[in-house]
Write a structure and sequence with these properties.
The protein has 162 residues and is an alpha/beta fold. The chain has a single domain (2-161), classed as Metallo-dependent phosphatases (Purple Acid Phosphatase, chain A, domain 2). The protein contains 4 helices and 11 strands; from the N terminus they run βαβαβαβββαβββββ. It has a 6-stranded mixed beta sheet, covered by helices on one side. The chain has a 5-stranded mixed beta sheet with strand order 5-6-7-9-8, covered by helices on one side.
Length: 162
């Protein structure tokens, strides 16, 4: 399975459309947005890729109930603040990454194979114990826009410039 990772679109529907199309065209089976969606219009772009997609809220997502309702209408999965995904037998937790106490707790517990997060504008791929932390970088507010592709088969992560 190829998982496309996106974060920090912050209302930029154009960046979301470009990233989602790029990840879809590279074979993503699932698109995961790690928070700071920024508006319902961004979810519209995510839904138009016709790839299964899920997201969590970020600290800048102020219209959380609106995003939740809109996601349901678009057949997108909104996990709220935290979501769990089974990625080909590997357990992943999805959070935005702004709550450092929650991140520390999730890492200390060592229950997950992957911790997928955003918030920080720089991409990251590192291990803490058995947990691999992957942040795709930011679609807005960084020197360059980035996303990532995770192969659950090989474990390879590729960062892509959007």
């Amino acid at each position: 399975m190829l998982v496309g990772l996106i974060s920090n679109s912050n209302g930029r529907a154009d960046a979301m459309a470009a990233a989602a199309a790029l990840l879809r065209d590279r074979g993503a089976d699932l698109l995961v947005h790690c928070g700071d969606v920024g508006g319902r219009h961004v979810l519209d772009e995510l839904a138009q890729t016709h790839v299964d997609a899920a997201f969590v809220w970020g600290d800048r997502d102020t219209d959380r109930m609106g995003l939740l309702r809109h996601a349901r209408n678009l057949d997108l999965v909104c996990f709220g603040l935290l979501g769990e995904l089974d990625l080909d037998g590997k357990l992943a937790v999805l959070v935005h990454g702004d709550d450092k106490k929650l991140l520390r707790k999730l890492l200390d517990e060592q229950q997950y194979d992957y911790l997928l997060c955003g918030h920080e504008v720089e991409g990251e791929d590192r291990k803490f114990g058995k947990t691999r932390i992957i942040n795709p970088g930011s679609l807005h507010g960084a020197p360059s826009r980035s996303a990532a592709l995770l192969s659950t088969t090989s474990g390879e992560v590729k960062f892509v410039t959007v």
